[in-house]
Design a protein that fits this description.
Layout lengths: L1 E3 L6 E3 L3 E4 L2 E8 L4 E8 L32 H17 L1 H13 L1 H4 L5 H17 L42
Antiparallel strand pairs: 1-2, 3-4, 4-5
Helix pairs in contact: 1-2
């Protein structure tokens, strides 16, 4: 890749750095956008220009999102989900509380009505997006579901309810 110097008619290799009186100019080229440009860096004379930060690699998550039953998650997947919820609760408590309160406040509209499934789908995608917004290892996280039909008649023994996950079905932590 080269950048054409329009004043002299010569070309410079892309990402060439030129220094003039302590001002560093980095010439860039992006042929996919068919544009050239430059970045200025005002530094003390005689110093080398700082290396530009490496842009973060965009995270590409599988499409469509695939949710798994809690009982089918690996231990690592369970731990990741619990860690994401814990981190959201610690780092962004106001957002966490807002989501919890939203569920409590709209109960009359979201429960025991024809809107139940649609509202909860909308609610869960918002919750999932909030967890994903934590970034890093949580960027592609999905919300697991409880395959309650599998546990019918023995709900209290379900892997969903334990002291290490979401508490017991009796509402206790033991």
């Amino acid at each position: 890749d080269a950048v054409l110097n329009e004043h002299s008619g010569t070309s410079l290799p892309a990402n060439t750095v030129v220094e003039q009186d302590g001002i560093f100019v980095r010439f860039t080229s992006d042929h996919s956008e068919r544009r050239t440009g430059f970045e200025l860096d005002f530094a003390c004379s005689g110093t080398t220009p700082p290396t530009p930060p490496t842009p973060p690699t965009p995270v590409v998550c599988p499409t469509p999102r695939v949710r798994k039953a809690w009982s089918l998650l690996s231990c690592a997947e369970r731990d990741l989900y619990i860690a994401a919820v814990g981190r959201l609760h610690e780092d962004r408590k106001q957002d966490f509380d807002r989501v919890v309160n939203m569920h409590l406040q709209v109960g009359q509209y979201a429960h025991q009505t024809s809107a139940f499934l649609a509202w909860h789908r909308f609610y869960l995608i918002g919750w999932e997006n909030m967890l994903r917004s934590l970034g890093g290892e949580y960027s592609c996280i999905t919300v697991p579901y409880w395959d309650w039909e599998k546990d019918a008649g023995r709900e209290s023994q379900s892997v969903v309810f334990s002291s290490t996950t979401f508490g017991t079905s009796a509402g206790t932590d033991g």
